[in-house]
Amino acid sequence: MCLAELPAVRGPDIVTVPFSRPGSSAMEASAFAELIGASAAVVTTLCWLPQAYKIIRDRDASSISYSAYGALAVGVAMWLVYGLMIGSMPVIGANAVTLLLVLCILGLKARFSKALTPAAV
């Protein structure tokens, strides 16, 4: 039986909030969801700092893929546009900073790329 075939259960005083503990309000669950979202935004935004630091420290970006980081930059730019369209400051902020860091990494790749010599190929 698939989910679409299950009967809907409705009650006049029953409000179900996913991942909430019994007795908690919808507002508490919403605040918890915002906390999870904000934490995820901080972690996924700042995760690019170690990569940028390593490239600057080693002056080597040979292991960075233009196509992967380029695709990532396009995807993050699209998320930024989406955030602007819906007016969500957390989505806008996280993706603006992430885009900046990813573009910096691409710039470092261009700056520190070493020309391949026939012996290196």
UniProtKB/TrEMBL annotation:
Gene3D superfamilies: 1.20.1280.290. One of its GO terms (molecular function) is sugar transmembrane transporter activity. The chain crosses the membrane at residues 29-49, 61-82, 88-108. The keyword ATP-binding does not apply. Pfam families: MtN3_slv. This is MtN3/saliva family protein. Keywords: Membrane, Transmembrane, Transmembrane helix. It comes from the Bacteria. InterPro entries: SemiSWEET (IPR047662), SWEET_rpt (IPR004316). GO terms for cellular component: membrane.
